[in-house]
Structure formats: structure tokens, C-alpha cells
Design goal:
Layout (H helix, E strand, L loop, with lengths): L5 H14 L11 H40 L4 H11 L5 H10 L1 H13 L1
Helix pairs in contact: 1-2, 2-4, 3-5
Length: about 120
Amino acid sequence: MRIKSGVTTRHHKKKLFRLAKGNYSDKRTKWRQVKQQTAKSMAHMYVGRKDRKGDFRSLWIERINAACRQADTTYSRFMAGLKKAGVMLNRKMLSEIALRDENSFRKLLEIARAA
């Protein structure tokens, strides 16, 4: 007597059908379309997770630049000054400081200008 793979196949398919839930038309009901769509969706998810990191970096840079320009300097001069002064703060923290603590950011600007 041979062993058929009904249970295993059903579990495998069920998993993909669950992932395809919410897609349009046949992309959530027909096996071949479900397979193709979930593969494509997962590829886009992977790329999106990488893109998000760059998006946040851009946001931080914009915030720092806006705060710098209010103090009559540019982002690039500010960052170059910090690097020369040996201040090792990342862009995320700098943007938070610029957003929430204006006095500390002014002190950082002075350090950058001095260097």
C-alpha cells in the first residue's frame, strides 16, 4: 500500500492560501495564481524591508538639515564639523535631538562650527 501525501499537500497549500487572503479575484482562489502571487508578494516584501531603512535615513537627514538651516548653516557643514570634532552620534539620534531638544542641538552646532 502506498502512502499518499494528501495531508502534507493540504497543509502546504493552506499556508499559501492564507498568505494570499485579501488579493483580488483568482489570485486568492486558484492554486496556480496563489503560488505566483505569493512568490511575487514575498519578493516585494523583502525589497520593501530594505527600502524602509533608506527611507528612514532620508527622513533623519531632512530633519537635521531643517534644524541646521534655521541656525544658518547646512547639513553637510554640520556633519563635517561633527566628524572633525570627533562627535560620534548617528543620524537617528541627531534628528531626535534636533526635534525634541533645541538647546542641545545648538550646543552641537557650536561644537561643529568650532571644529
